[in-house]
Design goal:
Layout lengths: L12 E11 L5 E11 L3 E3 L2 E3 L4 E11 L5 E10 L4 H4 L17 H9 L6 H8 L1 H9 L27 H6 L9
Antiparallel strand pairs: 1-2, 2-5, 3-4, 5-6
Helix pairs in contact: 2-3
Amino acid sequence: MPLSPAAPRKRLHDRTARYQCFVRDDGLFDVEAQLLDVKDHDIVLLTGPRRAGEPVHDMTVRLTIDESMTIVDIEARMDAVPYGAGCQRIEGAYGKLVGANLMDGFRKTLHEAFGSVRGCTHLTELLGYLPTAAVQMFAGLRKREDEGEHKPFQLDRCHALETTGDVVRRYYPKWYRGAA
């Protein structure tokens, strides 16, 4: 269902975040994310003018992960940024994330390593959504999650999949824990 009709308005800014997932020929997986910020009008930054439609931010990051969702490689690039080399010098620092696991405290690790002035706000935000993109990539590639010995990882991670709720009772009866 769409949102209700908006009041009369004029768009000023467009931010696009895109996530793409790939299986590699070597058996590893790449999760790529891109952030693109553009204005619909000319602006003047302290570093110079930007024409309407010219990116203020154009950043891409690629995580290479194994089947257990452990990061084995990372590459970050900033093709458009407001402060040039001042922004770009942080790209290589994100290599500290190699060895982290997307399903085991990743967001906490990310923000401890790159929160505030320790990283780029935009790259860090972009990376924060990579775990859910990876989960979606693996959905359908693995055996049915309700048939295993271990509780499916998605249960008790969102309100619809609380193990005391009707959705789990219906679709994951083995893991249903009764009404709260």
